C-alpha cells in the first residue's frame, strides 16, 4: 500500500496575506477599489470625458495603492493600530487642583 504524503498546513494562526498586503490592509485596499469604482461611475454619468475619468481614477489608484502598501510594510499586522493608540495617549497628566486628592482619607479609601 502506498503512503500518501500530504502537505501540512503551516499557516495556522497566521494572518491573511495577499500579494504583500497583510491583515486589515486587504480590506483597506478593497475599500479603495470600491470607492474608485464609484468615483469613476459618478464622473462618467455626470458627462466627464472617458480620458478624464481614467486620469482621475488612475492617479488616485496609484497614490492609494502605494500608500496602502507602504503602510503595510512599515507598520505590519498590528502596528498601525498601535501607532494610532500611541497618538491618543497623553504624554503627561496635569492636575491643577487638589480636589480629587482631598476626597481620599489616609487609609486609601473614600469617605
Sequence of strands across the biggest β-sheet: 1-2
Mean pLDDT: 81
Largest sheet: 2 strands, antiparallel
**How much strand?**
under 5%
Compute the CA-based radius of gyration.
26 Å
Ranges where pLDDT stays below 50 over 5 or more residues in a row are: none
Q: Provide the succession of SSEs.
A: EEHHHH
Cα separation of the termini = 80 Å
Describe it.
The chain has helices at 24-45, 50-75, 79-88, 99-102; strands spanning 17-18, 21-22. It is mostly helical. It has one domain (17-102). It has a two-stranded antiparallel sheet with strand order 1-2. A hairpin with a 2-residue loop joins strand 1 and strand 2. The longest helix is centred in the middle third of the chain and has 26 residues, at 50-75. It is flat and about 70 Å long. The mean pLDDT is 81.
